[in-house]
Amino acid sequence: MNIIVTNPDGIIVTSLFSTTPRQSTVLLLLFVSISFLLVIIDRSPVHLEKRAPAVAITEQSLAFYEGTLSGSLGGPYAYRVLVPYGISVFHALLPFAPVLVIDGIIKFFLLILCQWGLYRYLCLFFPRSAALFGVLYADILISFTLSSIAGPSITETADILNMVFFIAAFYALHQRSLPLLLITLFVATWNRETILAILPMIIIDDIRRKERPIRSIAAMVVVLSAYVVIRLIIPASQGAWFTFTGLVKNIPFLSPEHTMNALMGNIHVALLLLPLIVLSLVGFRRKPVFLQNAMAIVPLFIVAHYLVGVIIETRLWMPLFIILIPLSLITILESLERPSSNTPS
User: Were 270 and a residue from 84, 119, 274, 278 both cysteine, which residue would form a disulfide, CB within 3.0 to 4.6 Å?
Assistant: First the structure.
């Protein structure tokens, strides 16, 4: 079986894996049911408030939303506006609906979109069955990442939307659709600034193709424009900006107070990412150039989050799934197809 159906540049060369209406219906039913279950699991800690009223899960869940709308949050949080303002619009239209219920509904549809988009993206490289396996693997990883915060969090909804934007950007890059890429980058910057991580891949891709850097320059201009515009529209308080104070929470033994949490954070990251990274690096040179270029994002992303993030918040690693799952999936499928030495003759 031919696993990869792209040319050496990673561009699709066959429409073998187009989806029929019946197949789309079956997939949609599957993705809807999984999304519904993920939302229920995410909301389950809220029930603790009924047993122990002192547990303020709802209050914590609304902190990002209320802080963004009130302007009390400093940068960069004040500029991550898409989800909080989107919920605010729906809440104005449906004032009887609690904010967290609206957030759960938005999260539900974003999870469906995330699964469907990832499936379509993986179908650029794999047969339908393998692409579906990749999506289900991503579902397991997403369910783990959502456990880093107790209860439903509007911040998590922004992270799921961030993954949707990364999928759209990778798809646009692969299909060489510059308009889709630029629109995605502009809008995504108003959700989370981590979309900046895709710029090195665009530059590397242009260099390896020996093309004029028009696409790279356009992408940088669009992201910078979105970055500046949102800061002109919304004045933030002087609160927290990117600092290196999180280093003691990420690197063990820098601070006795945080060493245990730092160790646990590194264990979580290792369990989440290390198997994917190892599988991705096996036979790396034989894998599509497009996916090789994407891999350049991984070390930069990891270093950046160790410096200015909190690594135990595993939801922050979701964009890397889009890079590591197809690379590791190639290794998995190739190993399964290789004849076993103890196969009976």
Answer: 274
